[in-house]
Amino acid sequence: MTELSGRVALVTGGSRGIGQAIAISLAEAGAAVAVNYKQGSAEAQHVVETIQKAGGRAVAVPADVSKAAEVRALVEEVGESLGPIDVLVNNAGIGLIRTVDELTEEDFDLTIAVNLKSVFLCTQAVILGMRDRKWGRIVNISSGAARGAGGIGPHYNASKAGMEGLTRGYAARLVKDGITVNAVAPSLIETDMVRSGLASSPARIPLGRFGTPQECAQVVMMLVGNAYMTGQTVALSGGMSFL
């Protein structure tokens, strides 16, 4: 079990799905957790209450993490409420399902801003403090679409491939500062995005079922707990990645 007592974690997009499972797992390991959300205040507060009922510390903090000013305010508020951020999980993202013919410039720009630019903004906002303390864990939630065709569209592929590039770039430059940077690339996890039409059946998954948010959280916790692993992307696909 990863031991995070005395640590503070920020999970972007932490109000539901994979982010919710990660936030609760971090709290179970002893971390104080900031649950970021853009919409869904009630859902974020439910995650906070779940953590608090189990004896943990948590706050819900609204912010659009694709906006620099809001990210700065988010990190400042977390610092005031819980303390400096030791663990950052860049989970916030959108999946606008578009065909090549339907895809617009607005769709592309929005996807890159939410899925990729947010990782840059949040990482830049926390690494100074992590460097000062010589300890930090950054985990980016990518997707199998970073390397495969995916079902959402090329804009989504590009955003997640860029995220993995940021992961490697930051890992190489922060490795001497006690900061690890890794990614998890899930495919077809049973979340709202999948239920909304991305995949109606798990038939093409070799394991025969969708993954769960809790299984994603297990991999995140492994990365947070491993001080020797950095610059890596862990695929979580029920066997699809080696077909």
From TrEMBL:
Pfam families: adh_short. GO terms for biological process: monocarboxylic acid metabolic process. The keyword Oxidoreductase applies. One of its GO terms (molecular function) is oxidoreductase activity. Keywords: Oxidoreductase. PROSITE patterns: ADH_SHORT. Belongs to the short-chain dehydrogenases/reductases (SDR) family. PANTHER family: 3-OXOACYL-(ACYL-CARRIER-PROTEIN) REDUCTASE (PTHR42879), 3-OXOACYL-[ACYL-CARRIER-PROTEIN] REDUCTASE FABG (PTHR42879:SF2). This is 3-oxoacyl-[acyl-carrier protein] reductase.
